[in-house]
Write a structure and sequence with these properties.
Length: 466
């Protein structure tokens, strides 16, 4: 068992950081001893070996809590590590951005002695900062949908949004622990591809009339310059109006599940159950007979069903609870039972810590909202799921965050990264490979209604199977 000696300042926050990093992620047992000290000391019973870890973030004054003065100073210092550490710790690069820390010697953040190691990177404070989305509480920047944009984040500004920097920090920590106590073993992990699909538009034509069809076909011809798509859309509309909903152009569920099963994977489909803004919520009824049949099909094939709360719910605890209970009611009526229920906020609208808190109060098990709409990458700096922390009430919640790594609209959307197919594939593959490096979770969001062309399917299938 590890013994962690630390200052009692920010006791709740440090407890969360230790529990998340040492126990939840690494799977190691520990106990804490509080004493008057500036750093964090880690030892093992009856061992003379010691690991000293920098403690910078949690030395901030209580007056600076959740204030701009507590944010990392920019530009961040960089630690240039040797190739041996880079390889053994599986680092993305020799250049490590230091979110919080202090040098152990000029230009270095590690000093190794005979029976001790001094680690200058503030592993626990930096992990707390990234996982809780601390900076998003402090910084005022928001986009037109009241979302914190990637461009305002430390990771984007310092050039590490495309790397899971907290995973790298944890590998450095583990390198130090194993060097001191080679007999310790951490929790085994396996890489996972987690496929998710926000069901914004289950049927493109089921609830629309001829004027909407004409506008959509006009867009296919004039904007997308795709005659084949316009013809296919018109034929789809006719088939749906005759009652064959599976011919709907947005009914891609069977093929999505086929692809998942071909790769021995499961898909999670997150459904809307209400409309709180007709400008942004496609108004379909979770109780419609076609939706009920779709829910049964997904369940019978062994895939997952979840909640996709409507546009104006991210700060509304009553509405999210109402929408989640509506989903549970319909699933119960259809004989659908799951041990775990999760989902994602519509438009990725999310506010720390309020949205987490109301999801937790609603009884939802996990959230998978946290990626930036305007840029794919590691918003939380990690590719592992983790228990969340309420910065205002200063307590760990039952809810688990499963960070989203890629949304197809982020990389392909004209208003966002706007990458061509090949460039999008290479960028997404890079993120996936970095999740593999740490036996993490590559969480992918691909909307069921975003398979308009063969290129879309080809890109998706290649990425899933890569």
């Amino acid at each position: 068992m590890l013994i962690i000696k630390t200052s009692p300042a920010y006791e709740r926050e440090l407890n969360y950081a230790f529990e998340t990093v040492i126990n939840y992620i690494m799977g190691l047992d520990y106990k804490i001893k509080y004493e008057d000290r500036d750093d964090i000391e880690i030892i093992i019973n009856e061992s003379d070996k010691k690991l000293f870890v920098s403690n910078v973030f949690f030395k901030n004054s209580q007056w600076d809590w959740l204030k701009p003065s507590s944010l990392p100073k920019q530009p961040l210092p960089k630690w240039i590590v040797d190739n041996k550490l880079k390889e053994q710790a599986k680092l993305v690069s020799n250049e490590i951005p230091v979110i919080y820390g202090c040098e152990t010697a000029p230009g270095s953040y590690m000093r190794i002695d005979d029976n001790s190691i001094h680690l200058g990177i503030d592993i626990f404070g930096s992990a707390f900062f990234m996982l809780t989305r601390y900076e998003e509480y402090v910084k005022p920047e928001r986009d037109q949908h009241d979302r914190f944009p990637a461009t305002a984040s430390l990771a984007y500004k310092e050039g590490f949004l495309d790397r899971p920097v907290i995973n790298e920090y944890l590998e450095i920590l583990w390198y130090c622990i194993k060097r001191l106590w080679p007999g310790l073993e951490r929790k085994k992990r396996n890489f996972r591809t987690i496929l998710t699909h926000d069901v914004d538009v289950p049927f493109n034509h089921a609830f629309t009339g001829l004027p909407q069809l004409i506008r959509s076909c006009g867009g296919d011809l004039l904007k997308r310059r795709d005659l084949f798509l316009a013809v296919r859309r018109a034929k789809s509309w006719q088939a749906v109006k005759r009652g064959d909903y599976r011919q709907d152009i947005s009914y891609t569920f069977d093929r999505i599940m086929d692809i998942s099963e071909k790769n021995s994977l499961k898909s999670a489909f997150y459904f809307k159950t209400a409309c709180t803004d007709p400008n942004y919520d496609h108004n379909y009824s979770i109780e419609h007979k076609w939706i009920r049949q779709l829910l049964r099909d997904i369940y019978q094939r062994g895939h997952e069903i979840g909640i996709h709360p409507s546009y104006n719910t991210y700060q509304d605890n009553k509405q999210i609870k109402l929408e989640f209970e509506r989903l549970l009611k319909v699933c119960e009526e259809e004989g659908i039972k799951q041990e775990t229920w999760g989902g994602r906020q519509h438009y990725l609208r999310w506010k720390t810590p309020l949205t987490w808190r109301i999801w937790n109060e609603a009884g939802i098990d996990y959230d998978s909202t946290l990626s930036y709409a305007n840029h794919a990458g590691f918003r939380c700096g990690i590719c592992y799921e983790f228990p969340v922390y309420d910065l205002e009430q200063r307590q760990k919640l039952r809810l688990v965050e499963r960070p989203l790594i890629v949304m197809e609209g982020s990389v392909l959307g004209e208003q966002y990264m706007n990458l061509e197919y090949e460039d999008a594939l290479q960028y997404m593959k890079k993120l996936k490979e970095r999740c593999k490096r740490y036996a993490g979770d590559f969480v992918l969001l691909w909307h069921n209604s975003s398979f308009a062309t063969k290129k879309d399917y080809d890109l998706y299938e290649f990425l899933v199977g890569a």
